[in-house]
Amino acid sequence: MKKATKPAKNEILVNLLTSIFLLNPELAAVQLDSNLKIIKLKYFVENFKGIDLKLQKAEYLWKSYLEFKKTEKYILKIEHSFLDNYVMIEVSRDLNTFQIGELSFAVELGKGLGLHYLSDEYNEVLDFIEVDEQQVNILLENTKRSFSAKVFAFREEGRVVIAN
Predict the structure, then answer these.
(1) % of the chain beyond a pLDDT of 90
(2) Which of 71, 82, 106, 107 could be 66's S-S partner, Cβ–Cβ 3.0 to 4.6 Å?
(3) How far apart are CA 19 and CA 13, in angstroms?
(4) Which residues pair with 160 in a beta bridge?
(5) Which residue from 71, 74, 76, 80 is spatially nearest to 47, judged by alpha carbons?
(6) Could you give the CA distance from residue 70 to residue 103 in angstroms, rounded to a whole number?
(7) Distance CA 95, CA 112 (A)
(8) How far apart are CA 27 and CA 20, in angstroms?
(9) Edge-to-edge strand list for the sheet holding 76-82
């Protein structure tokens, strides 16, 4: 009988990133940097009107959320840049205090502020797949402790592309 082997670090990271994208169709890209201990979340939105004020409100509410959760010594920075017909929003969070639940919070917060997310047209195909958020939390905790690289993941035509 073979011994059960532990999954490789890369496998854990790939599973984490794939699960994050399955849980969050609004998310366009994720960047993990173990040296800086930062996770960057990237979203694309359609509307430009009042984007500065909306993102200021979002940052204030997100900080309130973190304080409500009793998160200490956190990093949160929300920036944006204008591209052709949309706005790219980049949220930087420290990897040590980041929690998976913040992804859903971010999307709902944006929707509440009137942001219209661009999402991958292939997401409807994946609606039947169920992802256990508790398992994703375990993957995140394992990744926080074990990975040592800079990784970038994004959606492309229904696939998750991961590069380092």
Answers:
(1) 24
(2) 71
(3) 10
(4) 155
(5) 80
(6) 17
(7) 25
(8) 8
(9) 76-82, 87-94, 38-45, 27-33, 150-156, 159-163
Q: Length of the chain, please?
A: 164
Q: Alpha-carbon distance 66 to 99, whole Å? A: 10
Q: Which parts of 14-146 are beta strand (E)? A: 27-33, 38-45, 76-82, 87-94
Nearest to 150 by CA among 99, 75, 95: 95
Paired with 45 in beta bridges are: 87, 117
pLDDT in tens, 111-128: 898 888 887 554 444 444
Q: Cα 21 to chain center, whole Å?
A: 8
Annotated domain spans of the chain: 9-163
Q: Following CA atoms 63, 67, 68, 72 in sequence, which dihedral angle do they give, to the nearest 10 degrees? A: 140
Q: What is the pLDDT of residues 90-149, one digit of tens each?
A: 999 998 899 888 888 898 998 898 888 887 554 444 444 455 566 556 666 666 666 667
**Ranges assigned E (strand) in the chain:** 27-33, 38-45, 76-82, 87-94, 150-156, 159-163
